[in-house]
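Final report, closing paragraph on structural work. Over the funding period we assembled a curated collection of sequence-structure pairs, and we close with a single example.
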Amino acid sequence: MRFKVVLVVIFLVSCTSEKKKSNKKSTGESSVVVSKHSNGNIRSEVSVKDGKQHGLAKSYDRNGKLILELPYVNGQRDGMSKKYFEGGKRLYQTTEYKNDKLNGKQVKYRQDGNVMSEARYENNFPCIGLKEYLLDNTLKKKYPTIVITPIDQLEDRGTYTLVVSMSDKVRSVKFYSGKLSPEGCLTDKLYSMLMDQSEKKGMLTYQLAPGSFAMEELNIIAEIETILGNTYVTQRTYNLAIDN
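Its predicted structure, as stored:
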């Protein structure tokens, strides 16, 4: 999801550089850079002030239908963006930004207008509390849980490994150890586990010399991609106590 948003921003900025298909409409101290499709229809309108994007940037399909509204303040995304289904009549997604980062709620809709999912972000990182709705508009309740399997090889190799997996099959997953932010979101301070991508398993390995021991309360976190393309965050505490 985060990559997709970056691609959108790149698209908007790149449109302003198409000099052959662009023109400026003066609006006092500001200007609007307009880019057009090859058929002559407007492709994008980007408000610029003092050399920075400032105001509501808009993108259109080849038929002139609005597909994206993205607010900027002094060159940074700030406010509520709106993405539309093809044809521009119904909302597909709304996303809140602050200081050029995802901060707040992201809501996705089905073509009938019903809410498909509600997710929360902090500083571009996903948070716990994802809500996904089934076709009958009931809240999805069943998600995979974290499974931790210890492998004791202390006697032979002096190692003790925790293999971390999910209780059900998932499209993709990343595992971390550490603490979520106070608001329950991923942070850049988490430790990323070594992954076996083919098996979708994470591993934490401890090496203990003879006569030594280790005791620790671990917080294991999983970042999962759901079938609807959202990010589900879950965690589990594990009490580690080993001696060699």
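Residues 146-243 form a domain with the Immunoglobulin-like fold (CATH 2.60.40). Residues 1-28 have pLDDT under 50 and may be disordered. We thank the funder for supporting this effort.
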